[in-house]
């Protein structure tokens, strides 16, 4: 069963501020509750083909995985994917200007779990949605306090 979770938020900061902060992988542990570290596997700067090692905790499990950047349009979109089993995932960020110095940001996670993970797909989708909502709220608080 596929998982496709779309989360969104409006942040009271200009698009360039939100996009440049969110796209910088070294900032991820500051606003993603479950991500404890990110390491460059290819040299910066971020570009299609860049590879990043993530260490996180999700649903009580420690996870280590590598994302590869598939698409990057500065200030518009970032698409990354990991092919590691049991749950290959594609993550997409988009940013759009939303009025006076505000930014509408979306965070989409989608993938097709395999094996045992496929049985837990509905539970995983709900957990991802809750985590994404918390993480985007954290990003909003962080950026609006600057």
CATH superfamily descriptor: START domain
Highest CATH level, the class: Alpha Beta
Straight-line N-to-C gap: 41 Å
Note the total helix count: 4
- Work out the radius of gyration: 15 Å
The helix-and-strand class reads alpha+beta
Number of domains: 1
Q: H/E order of the elements?
A: EHHEEEEEEHH
Oligomer: single chain
CATH-defined fold name: Alpha-D-Glucose-1,6-Bisphosphate, Chain A, domain 4
Mean pLDDT: 92
**How much helix is in the residues?**
25-40%
Q: Taking strands numbered 1, 2, ... along the chain, how are they ordered across the largest sheet?
A: 1-7-6-5-4-3-2
Write down the overall geometry.
Answer: globular
Unreliable stretches, pLDDT < 50, 5 or more residues? none
The largest β sheet comes out as:
7 strands, antiparallel
Notes on the protein architecture:
The protein has 146 residues and is α+β, with helices and mostly antiparallel strands. It has one domain (3-144): Alpha-D-Glucose-1,6-Bisphosphate, Chain A, domain 4. Helix content is 28%, strand content 41%. The chain is built from four helices and seven strands. It has helices at residues 15-23, 28-31, 116-119, 121-144; strands at residues 3-11, 35-40, 51-58, 61-73, 77-82, 89-97, 103-111. A hairpin with a 5-residue loop joins strand 6 and strand 7. The mean pLDDT is 92.
């Amino acid at each position: 069963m596929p998982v496709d979770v779309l989360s969104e938020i409006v942040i009271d900061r200009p698009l360039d501020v939100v996009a440049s902060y969110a796209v910088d992988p070294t900032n991820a542990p500051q606003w993603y509750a479950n991500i404890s570290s990110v390491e460059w596997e290819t040299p910066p700067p971020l570009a299609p083909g860049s590879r990043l090692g993530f260490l996180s905790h999700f649903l009580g499990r420690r996870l280590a995985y590598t994302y590869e950047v598939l698409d990057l349009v500065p200030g518009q979109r970032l698409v990354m994917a990991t092919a590691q089993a049991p749950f290959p995932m594609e993550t997409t960020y988009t940013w759009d200007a939303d009025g006076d110095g505000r930014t509408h940001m979306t965070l989409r996670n989608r993938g097709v779990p395999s094996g045992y993970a496929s049985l837990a797909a509905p539970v995983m989708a709900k957990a991802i949605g809750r985590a994404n909502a918390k993480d985007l709220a954290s990003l909003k608080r962080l950026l609006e306090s600057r």
